[in-house]
Amino acid sequence: MLRHAPRVAAAQLGRRRKSTALDVVSEARVYGGRMVKFHHASSSTGTGMTLSAYIPSTVTKRSKAHGVLYYLSGLTCTDDNVTTKGGFQQHAERHGVVVVAPDTSPRGAGIAGEEKDWDFGTGAGFYVDATAKKWAANYNMYTYVTQELPELVEASLDVVPGIKAITGHSMGGHGAMVAALRERSYASVSAFSPICHPTTTPWGMKAFSGYLKGGVEEGAQYDATELMLRHGAVPDLPILIDCGAADPFLKRELAIPDFVKACKKRGQAADVHLRKGYDHTYYFVSTYMKDHMDFHAKHMKAQSRKRVLPIPAAGKKGGKAAAKPPAHAASEFAATAGKVIKCKAAVAYAPNQPLDTVTVLVDPPKAGEVRVKVMANALCHTDVYTLSGQDAEGKFPCILGHEAGAVVESVGAGVTSVKPGDHVIPCYTPQCKQPDCIFCMSKKTNLCPRIRATQGQGLMPDQTSRFRDENGTTLYHFMGCSTFSEYTVLAEISCAKINKKMDFERASLFGCGVSTGLGAVWNTCKVEKGSSVAVWGLGAVGLSVIQAAQMAGAKRIFAIDM
Length: 562
What we know:
By secondary structure, this protein is α+β, with helices and mostly antiparallel strands.
C-alpha cells in the first residue's frame, strides 16, 4: 500500500514499463561503501542506460538504506561527473543514504543529428518526454527518471520503497525541481544552479522546440516557475537552492529570481542562497554538497517516520499518535477547478492483460459529483478478480481501484456535503440517505441502489464517463471509484468525509477491507460477548474480522490460513 495510485496498481497487477536487471559494470570502494556503475536495457528510452549508485557500508538485506537520493546531472554530463567530482560519498556513508546518478540522455539511439550540438541531443535530454516524432521513441528521460529508474532501484537494491529525494545541477537541477513539483512523492528537492524558467531562456527554448511537438508552449509542464504559478504551492515539499553569484549563466539561462517570485506569489517556502564568488563548476557543487546531503537525509528520515506509522497502544495513555497527513488548502486546487486535468492512471485495456500506466484526461465534476486527488491506495482481490475477466460486470478499457484515501479537488453543482480540501474515502456502496430509499432507512442493511444501475455499466449517473486517454478512447469507471488514477470523479453520495488527522494510507483500508470485516461481525453474524469465532483467511478482511470479534467480546478466536 503506497502513495501514487497508478504506480502501485501497475506494480501489483502487471506491467507498466519493465527494465532488465542491473548488470554491474565496475565497482570501487570509497569511504567504506561501494561506488557501483550499472548498465541495463531501458524500455523508456529503447536503449541501454548507465547509472552509478553509492551504497553505504551499513546497507544490507536486513538493514536497508534510510532512503535514496537521485542526482540529475547537467548538459554534456554523464553519471561520472558527480561521482568523481561531487564529493557526496562521505556524507552518504554518514547518513546511510543510497545516492543514484543516472545518465543525462539515451546514447546510441541512432537518431540523425543527436550528436550535432552540445546542448541538444546526446547528453542533453532535458528530462522531458519527447513528443516530436523524431525523438519520441527514445528521449523519454522524465519517465525514465521518475518512474522506471525508481522502480528498478527499489527492486534491485536494498532500499526501503518509496523513501526518496531528488537533487541536481544546472539542467539536472531543472529536472529535479520539475519532478518534485509534478510527482509530489519526494521527501525533499534541492538544486545547484538550476534552470528555473526554461520556457524563457535559450537552453530551455531550444530543448522544448526540438523535443516537443507543441514547442515552448508544451514545455510549460517541464518548467518549475510555470508549474508553481499555474498549480500552486506544494506545502509539504522542502526546497533548497544554491547558486554561485559569479555563475556566468546566472542571468541568461538560470532565471532563479523568476522562481523565487513565483514561490512568494503562491506561498511556497523555499531556501535560496546566492553564494558570493562561486561559479557554475563542480568546485562550487562540492563545496555545498554536505549541506544538501544533510538536508535530504533529514527529510527522508521524516518521510520514513510518516510511512511507518506507530499504532497507539489500546487502553493506554501516552501512546504515540499516527503521523499527521499533509494539509491541503482549497487554494491549492483553485487553478484546476472547472478544467480538464491531465494525470497518470493505470489502465486495464483488456481482461487478463497487464495494466498500462498512461496519461489520461479527467473531466470536471458535473452536478452532484466530486473530483478528488488520490493520495493513497490499497489493493483488493476484487480488482484482481475483475482484471482476470471473470467479473460479469467488468467493462474494458477501465481504471480499476476502489480502496483509497483522497482529497477533494473540486465539486459540481449542488454538492453540499464536501468542499475542496476535505479528506474523503471513496465508497463502492454509497448512501443517498433519502427518505424513499428503504435500504438507507433500514437498520439491517445499507446497500443503497440509487446509482447501482449506471455504476454496474462503468458510468457516472448521467450514463457518461469522466475519463479518456490521450488517443480519445473512453475509459470506463470501476465500482464508482476508479482510484488507480491520480485524480478521479465520484458521485457525491459515494464520498465519506473523514477527519483530516487520519493518515491516508490507513484511511484507504476503510473503503472496503476493514469495513467489510467489521460489518461481517457486527451486522451479519452479530457476534455476542463470550462467543467462539473461527476466521478462515487472514488478509485485510480476516484481520478486521478478528479485531471486530475481539471488540465484540468474543472469548475465543481461531485464526486459520494456509
